[in-house]
Design a protein that fits this description.
Elements (H helix, E strand, L loop, with lengths): L9 H7 L20 E3 L22 H6 L3 H18 L3 E3 L22 H16 L4 E7 L12 E3 L2 H8 L1 H6 L6 E4 L3 E2 L2 E2 L4 H11 L5 E3 L8 H6 L12 H10 L5 H20 L8 H15 L1 E5 L11 E5 L25 H8 L4 E5 L11 H15 L3 E7 L16 H13 L3 E6 L15 E4 L7 H10 L12 E2 L16 E3 L8 H7 L3 E3 L10 E12 L2 E10 L5 E11 L10 E10 L4 E8 L6 E3 L4 E3 L3 E10 L2 E10 L11
Parallel strand pairs: 1-2, 2-3, 3-5, 4-16, 5-8, 10-11, 10-12, 12-13, 13-14
Antiparallel strand pairs: 6-7, 9-14, 15-17, 18-19, 19-22, 20-21, 20-25, 23-24, 25-26
Helix pairs in contact: 3-4, 3-11, 11-15, 12-15
Length: 663
């Protein structure tokens, strides 16, 4: 149905610009269909009328999805969640979040994608396309520079223009190519002005520069002065704001806003309603198939971080101890609006391993009950007993994690609870073959215990199929192929921000464009595990790099990857670009493309990727646009940001009239 805004009275128009309640748009006196919105991004989170939470498929958290480096799996993730949305009547899923991981302390990093803006944007774009392919809308969030939970309502993110565009806006610029039905503004001010009132961000950048045509919605309660948000082209204030109508009417009477301003936003709400009405909602997965999809993504997103002496996959006919409360009750996701309530029974890891490897012996121990609690004397006595059991086993699989990752607050440390660190070291005293499973949503400092263990598998917050995926990788049924989407530093002090959080009013982003691996590269800081890192049961060899010029600043990069092992596997290869000489300071290298390909044992596969203008550009504050300087650039192809296998050089030669004079 096509709606004409001229059929609405002024009161009905204004009513349409704030929610009818917590989750629905207004009907404007029953004239319009209401749009129902619901939380994501790791599955549907919707409340029943009695306040309880509906059951849905608990998908791997976006941090795990990003670690797949696989756009097809990101698309599948969105598609699967959309099925649950349709079953429960949700029109718009409030996801995905693409805020850059500037600090590992951010309590919400588990539901964000990466420290790298390109990877975050590309994976979000695929996720959005997956959701919307089923006739369900998305809400790209939180726009923008919302990189902490502490002080998120008040503290302004003071970011220079270049860093804003290259790091914090870039994921949104890429993801809007998928045409999300809505974009959600963040709570925080940016450069002194609340995101909800920031016309430069909303109108000048998102709408005009990025070409976004959809609806801009506030985060829940992010609107402070309704008419100022409306003037900035924020279309929909959520949830219902009882003061909204009077505030806007008064502003209209005083000439602070015009009817043109109101009609612009009303039209965007009407456009969303029409989009929802015209959408063909299609359910294509059964409940069982949705779980299978969750398992597939979890398997692809778990990262093998250490595998000394090739202790993994587990060997048949051996005796193993599976230890830790989380092996039976894993953390499926982080807390807050992203937490998903599932009714799928999570199988204990020990039982799954018994089924996968019937010729081996697996014994379970739950001691300590929860290592983040202070153990009592009985727990300590049980622990000592189990240490003796551990000594008799061929290896110990120790399941540890961090339950303190959530919306609304940040982590105070990136180390595991001291109880877990003590447990790992103590078990390693009794058995030299310890395999640690990390049930966390963000980077962890492992310096206290990493040298004491043989293997580390980052299972992450991998949703309801977490134990099935872990068992498949441990047993060798699945070859791990995930790679880190964020750097794991040696310690918090090595990060740029350390334990600083701002003063509650202002945080100065003095790191500029040097975020994540760009920071460690610039200052030559060693890390525990670099961005893009992940082990496989296969071994891969890179060679035969060829770079062909296809346009003024367009190149085709191709290279061979050979699986030199006896095991089929998937390899994520990463293409970085380095500006050898620049008139502005630039990172050592920047991710500009990637590829994930399955390569059979002994097979050689030719990989081809394209690099365009964006791959060589920086954001010029002089031209207020993306700019490429003429000169030499290096193209690096690697297995991680620190494992560069191939290098080549190109000479970019754009027309001279668009170039500044150089030294």
């Amino acid at each position: 149905m096509k709606y004409d805004l001229n059929n609405l009275t002024l009161e009905e128009k204004i009513e349409l610009l704030t929610g009818a309640d917590n989750w629905r748009t207004s009907s404007s006196n029953g004239k319009l269909r209401q749009v129902f919105m619901s939380d994501g991004p790791n599955g549907l989170r919707m409340q029943n009328a009695d306040g309880s939470t509906k059951k849905a498929t608990a998908m791997p958290n976006l941090s795990v999805v990003a670690q797949t480096w696989d756009e097809e799996l990101a698309y599948l993730d969105g598609e699967t969640i959309a099925n649950d949305c349709i079953d429960n009547g949700a029109d718009v899923l409030l996801a995905p979040g693409v805020n850059v991981k500037r600090t590992p302390l951010n309590g919400r990093n588990f539901e964000y994608l990466s420290e790298d803006p390109y990877l975050a944007g590309v994976m979000a774009r695929a996720y959005i396309r997956g959701v919307q392919s089923k006739g369900v809308g998305t809400s790209l969030k939180h726009y923008c520079a919302n990189n902490r939970e502490v002080y998120r309502f008040t503290q302004t993110s003071e970011v220079d223009e270049r860093a804003l565009h290259e790091i914090y806006l870039k994921p949104f610029e890429i993801a809007t190519q998928a045409e999300p039905w809505t974009v959600m503004c963040s709570y925080n001010p940016v450069n002194g002005v609340y995101a909800s009132e920031n016309r430069k961000l909303l109108k000048d950048t998102l709408r005009d520069k990025f070409g976004y045509k959809g609806l801009i919605v506030s985060d829940w309660g992010a609107v402070h002065e309704p008419y100022k948000s409306l003037r900035a082209t924020l279309d929909l204030c959520m949830p219902h704001n009882g003061d909204y109508a009077q505030n806007v009417k008064t502003a209209l009477e005083n000439g602070y806003i015009s009817m043109k301003d109101i009609d612009f936003c009303v039209q965007n709400v009407l456009n969303l309603i029409e989009t929802v009405e015209n959408a063909e909602k299609t359910v294509n997965y059964t409940k069982e198939e949705r779980h299978a999809n969750a398992l597939k993504i979890a398997e692809g997103g778990m990262v093998l971080l250490k595998n000394e002496d090739e202790i993994l996959p587990l060997k048949d006919g051996k005796k193993y101890l599976v230890a830790g409360y989380l092996a039976k009750n894993p953390l499926l996701g982080g807390g807050g609006s992203a937490f998903v309530q599932t009714d799928y029974p999570v199988s204990p890891l020990c039982d799954l391993l018994k089924d996968a490897m019937p010729d081996s012996d697996f014994e379970f121990s739950s001691v300590p009950v929860q290592a983040w609690e202070m153990p009592n004397e009985l727990d300590l006595q049980r622990a000592k007993y189990n240490y003796l059991i551990a000594r008799e086993k061929d290896a110990v699989i120790l399941y540890v994690g961090d339950p303190n990752e959530s919306e609304c607050y940040d982590r105070s440390s990136i180390r595991l609870h001291p109880g877990y660190e003590r447990l790992i070291k103590e078990v390693a005293r009794y058995n030299e073959n310890v395999i640690v499973l990390l049930n966390v949503g963000s980077a962890v400092d492992m310096s206290e215990w990493i040298d004491d263990v043989k293997a580390v598998l980052l299972v992450g917050y991998a949703g309801e199929a977490i134990n099935e995926a872990a068992a498949a990788i441990l047993s060798g049924k699945t070859n791990p192929s995930g790679k880190l989407a964020e750097t794991f530093p040696l310690c918090l002090e090595d990060t740029y921000t350390g334990d600083e959080v701002g003063d509650g009013f202002v945080e100065w982003y003095s790191d500029g464009v040097f975020v994540g691996y760009r920071h460690y590269d610039r200052y030559g800081i060693d890390v525990l595990f670099p961005f893009g890192y992940g082990l496989s049961y296969s071994k891969f060899k890179y060679d035969n790099l060829k770079i062909e010029k296809k346009g003024d600043a367009e190149y085709e990069v191709s290279y061979d990857i050979t699986n030199v092992s006896d095991t089929d596997g998937a390899e994520v290869s990463q293409i970085y670009v380095k500006d050898i000489f620049s008139m502005v300071v630039r990172p050592e290298k920047e991710l500009r493309a990637f590829n994930k390909s399955v390569i059979k044992a002994g097979e050689t596969k030719r990989i081809t990727v394209k690099l365009g203008y964006d791959a060589f550009a920086y954001y010029s504050t002089v031209y207020d646009a993306w700019h490429v300087e003429n000169g030499p650039f290096e193209i690096w192809v690697g297995a991680s940001s620190a494992d560069i296998r191939l290098k080549g050089t190109v000479e970019v030669e754009l027309p001279d009239d668009g170039q500044q004079s150089q030294i």
